[in-house]
Design goal:
Elements lengths: L26 H4 L8 H4 L7 H19 L14 H19 L4 H8 L6 H14 L18 H13 L1 H6 L9 H18 L4 H9 L3 H17 L5 H14 L2 H18 L4 H10 L4 H13 L8 H21 L1
Length: about 325
């Protein structure tokens, strides 16, 4: 409840990363309005985590607009724990411009080898937003940037569809057409991340929402929830415990841990590990951040040097779950 005199959490200008001014010239054609990320506009559940999660959305748009305006350096002016979301937006902008100008991914490669080098996973997720906005299927028109991480475009595609078209994708449980089983699984991981935002980081909303989906989709949804709960945060320790218990009861505890481990790795690579990630890892993974992240490295090495296919990406996820299962069995 908002008390008299308190700032309105729906006022995006009061968030930790207020949006920059609207640019002029060609960049104005691509400029995205940060107000579209507001939970009131999206009709998402409102709760104590609203400001935190809306701030992530505003950071995403800030990253997109910075690239569109040719001012990518502005991203690093944002608060450290929000920069990953901004680089996700930057990935979307670079992929959009690359497709519009038929450069085959030049801008995206420059971002990944330069300023965005510590956020490779988020940048690749951002490309999925670009494909969705262009009404194309991921990986069309851009030559391989990273042979395995490029599959995260399907995760970003799923997040986009759930975030912007929640009635269709969450309410009616629709997926995009022309997707095989592997692509749909990664799409659902992204959709699981959306559910964390859709339910404003509340376990009481997330758990029954997942239960509405067919059993064949819930594993990947739990994976996305674990990733978002650990990376974006917003839940109390008690709520995280409820998630772990519900995932175990649903038969997908390993998938929740796998998503958490991914988030731990993402944060370590960025060299910014916020308190909510440190708090989430022991509850969702049963391990500290460093150990959970190490499972992702071990599983990746086990794939060999030529890992590139969707099956390889799924094997990577499975390897992380096996590492968690061994840890859980031995503890």
């Amino acid at each position: 409840m908002i008390s008299p005199g308190d700032p309105d959490p729906g006022d995006l200008s009061l968030l930790p990363c207020p949006p920059g001014p609207r640019p002029k010239g060609v960049a104005r054609l691509l400029w995205q309005d940060p107000a579209r990320m507001g939970f009131g506009v999206r009709r998402f559940r409102l709760g104590p985590a609203r400001e935190r999660l809306e701030g992530a959305g505003v950071a995403f748009v800030a990253g997109f607009n910075a690239v569109a305006a040719g001012e990518t350096g502005r991203i690093d002016d944002l608060r450290e724990d929000l920069r990953g979301f901004a680089y996700e937006g930057a990935g979307m902008a670079c992929a959009t411009l690359d497709m519009l100008t038929l450069t085959g991914g030049r801008r995206l490669r420059e971002l990944l080898s330069g300023q965005g080098v510590r956020y490779p996973h988020l940048v690749h997720m951002g490309t999925g937003w670009a494909y969705a906005r262009m009404r194309l299927r991921p990986m069309w028109g851009i030559r391989s940037v990273h042979p395995l991480l490029r599959w995260l475009a399907h995760d970003g595609f799923g997040f986009h569809q759930g975030f912007l078209f929640s009635d269709r994708t969450v309410g009616r449980q629709r997926t995009a057409g022309l997707m095989d089983r592997t692509r749909r699984a990664i799409f659902d991981q992204g959709l699981g991340r959306t559910l964390w935002f859709h339910e404003c980081a509340g376990a009481a909303g997330v758990v029954p929402r997942i239960a509405e989906f067919p059993a064949g989709r819930r594993a990947d949804l739990w994976s996305g929830v674990g990733l978002a709960a650990t990376y974006a945060g917003g839940a109390s320790t008690a709520d995280l415990g409820l998630l772990a218990s519900a995932a175990a009861e649903d038969g997908f505890r390993a998938h929740l841990a796998q998503g958490c481990a991914f988030a731990c790795a993402y944060r370590l690579i960025s060299e910014v590990v916020p308190e909510h990630t440190v708090a989430a890892a022991p509850v969702l993974c049963g391990a500290e951040v460093d150990e959970a992240a190490s499972w992702t490295d071990t599983a990746l090495v086990a794939l060999g040097h030529n890992a590139h296919s969707g099956d390889h990406y799924q094997a990577w996820r499975a390897g992380i779950r096996k590492a968690w299962a061994r840890r859980d069995r031995d503890s």
